[in-house]
Write a structure and sequence with these properties.
Blueprint (H helix, E strand, L loop, with lengths): L1 H13 L4 E2 H7 L1 H10 L7 E2 L5 H24 L3 H28 L12 H23 L7 H12 L3 H17 L3 H21 L5 H22 L1 H9 L8 H14 L10 H4 L18 H34 L3 H20 L9 H19 L6
Helix pairs in contact: 1-4, 1-14, 2-3, 4-16, 5-6, 5-8, 6-8, 6-9, 6-15, 6-16, 8-10, 9-10, 9-15, 12-14, 14-15, 14-16, 15-16
Length: about 375
Amino acid sequence: MLSCGLLWLVYVWLQLLPLPIEILQLISPQAARWHIAAAAPAAVGMVPLSLDVYATLEGACKSTAYIAFFALSLVLLRDRDRIRYTAYTLIASGVLQALYGGMTSLQSLGDVATGTFVNRNHYAGYLTMCLSVGVGVLIASLSGEENQTWGRFFRNMLQWVITPKMALRLGLVVMVVALVLTRSRMGNSSFFISMLITGAIGLLLAKRATKSMVILLISLVAIDVFVVGTYFGTRRVVERISQTTAQTEDRDEVAGYALNMWKDYPVFGSGLGSFAAVFPRYSEDGTPASYTYAHNDYLQFGTETGALGLSLLGLMVAMSFAAALRAQYLRRDPLMRGLSFASIMGIIALMMHSAVDFNLQIPSNAMTFMLILAFAWISLYHDRAEA
C-alpha cells in the first residue's frame, strides 16, 4: 500500500516535469498538440505533461498530504487507546456535523441539510463514513459470549441499553436522521447497500463472532431508517430517486464527454486537477461548460491521470479492502473486527458514491477516507499475538 502511494506521488509530481516536446509527442500526442497551440512553435521547447500546471501542483501537494496522513496513522495508532480515541473522535465529528446540519435544516422548514459543507452530497458522503466507523465500534462493543442462549442474549441486550454505550447508539440515530435530511439519493443508497453487503460479509466470514449481534445491529440501523427516517423525510429521498431520469439529469452527458476526453489522454492523462481547464473543449451545446468536476471520481482520475494513475489508486483501495476482509476472517479481537467492519463498509459506500459524485476531490472526505483505509491495515496487523 505504501509502495503504491509512493509510486502515485512520484507519478503526479512527474506530470509537472518539463519534457522535450518530441518526447511528449510520443507519450501524449494530444497534450503536445495543445502545448504547441498555446505557444509559437519556435518557442516550444520543454513542456510538462500537465495542461494545467498550477492545478496539478495543488493536486500533487494534496496527494502528498493524504499519503503522509495515511503513513502517520499507521505509525501513531499503535495502541488500543489511541485507536479507540481516533475512532470516537471521527464519530463525534459526525455527530456534531449531524446536529448542526439537522438543526439548520429543520429551522429553515424543509431545506436540505448540508452541515458545514457547500454540497449536500459531500456532506452525506462524510456522514456515511462516520456512520461506518460508528457501526464498527458498536459491533466491537456488542461482541460478547459465544454460543449463548437466546434468553441470555436478550438479557445482555437489555443490559446494554442502560449502559453508556447507548450514547453511541443515539449518536448513530442522529447521524442517520441528518443523512436522510440531506435528500442525497446516492448518499442514502450507499449507506443502505454498504451496510447490508458488509453485514452479509461479516456473517459469511465470521468464525467465532456472535453472529446474532451482527444481525441485531443491522436490524437496529434499519429501524432507524424506516422509523426515524419516515418522520424526517425518507419518503422525499425515495421520491427523488424515483423521479430521476435521463431527461432530468445531465451527469450522463458529462460522463459521455469525459469519456471522449479520456480517449485523448488514455495512458498518462491531462494532468491531475486539470479537468476544469480541459473539459470545456469537449462539452457540446446544451451541456454546461462550467463543470469543474466530472461528478464521477473514476472518470475524473481517469481523464486527469490516465489508466496508469487510475490503476495505482485502484490498487491502493483494493489492497486495503482485501486487508479488511482478511481481518474480518482471521481476527477474533472485537475491536479489530469492528475496525475491519468499518473499513469494509466505508470503502463500499464511498466507492458506490464516487460513481456519481466527486467526494474524493473534497479534502475533508479524502482525508477521512485515508483514515478508513488505514483502519483496514491496523485491523489486520495490530497486536497479532492474540490467543
